[in-house]
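Sequence in, structure out.
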Amino acid sequence: LAASVYCCDRLRCNLCGEVFTAPAPEGVGSEKYDASATSMVGLLKYSAGLPFNRIEKLQAGMGIPLPAATQWDLVKGAAKTLTPAHEELLHQAAQASVLYNDDTTMKVLQLTRKQRAAALADDADGERTGVFTSGIVATQTGRQIALFFTGVRHAGENLAAVLARRNTDLPAPIQMCDGLSRNIPSEFDTILSQCLAHARRKYVELTETFPAEVRFVLETLREVYITDARAREQNLDPAQRLALHQAQSAAPMKALEQWMQRQFEERLIEPNSALGAAILYMQKRWSELTLFLRVAGAPLDNNTSERALKKAILHRKNALFYRTLAGAHVGDVFMSLIHTAELNHIAPFDYLLALQRHAAELAANPAAWMPWTYQATLA
């Protein structure tokens, strides 16, 4: 963040005392802060995880004053400019064929009882006290869209708000999440797939206690992930990937299913033991965990959503909290645009800069200013 200071000569008339100031260079003074400054503050705050007060100290060390309050004014104003692009991301994400979702805890200091009640509406658990940031990643034809929602609603409720924008003539999307029921949108149908990585972790935690049993499970799942990696290396389409998994992963997964049944039938493992709990977790969700063997495009795990949530977790670790829901919304807008640009291999600084410098065109046609279309629009 750099600053230019223009010192304009001032002369006073000895006769009348009037002071005359030399005009500034053309274009100077219309706006104190360029869009590049706002883009940099937004990137440092909502992507690199630097709180406003740390940016203020950094700038002070360089002799360029930039108070935390000024930084907030900049990103707050920019969020209004960026809203059309954010709304278009919501619309396009709703049409995607695969959606990943999860949430993490967050803190909002000035969250009133009235705001909480308004967000929960008529939900049965109106006494809910938690605050969360939900991460939703939508994938469609090689493109990925990341969305963030901070408030009292769970990931499933925020996903339902996105799916409310979905065209009614489209089939139900594939949804990938972990085993928590709060991740499922109750109002909309999805083809539910659940996370193999979550099931795998329950065995990893028991490596020292049940080494032989855990080794069998991990080596079986390793074969499945090797097959999936091979599909990515060969750039297979969803149908070809499905055929490859059916040919190479179906047999190991069937052997794993039979192994789990045998542990209980032959009384090799007690159901109430730690290993028994891991097996029961997988058996209960077996259909969802093996959706990739039946439906083209079904993912193996929810790591995509969990990686996206690292943006929110980094903010929570460094800034600790949002002050208000309005501040949380500004963070959600910036994080959504920044991480979507990153997922599509676009430099987020250049993208934010282009959106702000072409605010009128963005408002008129948001679809032309998505990360994968804005460079062609500029050209």
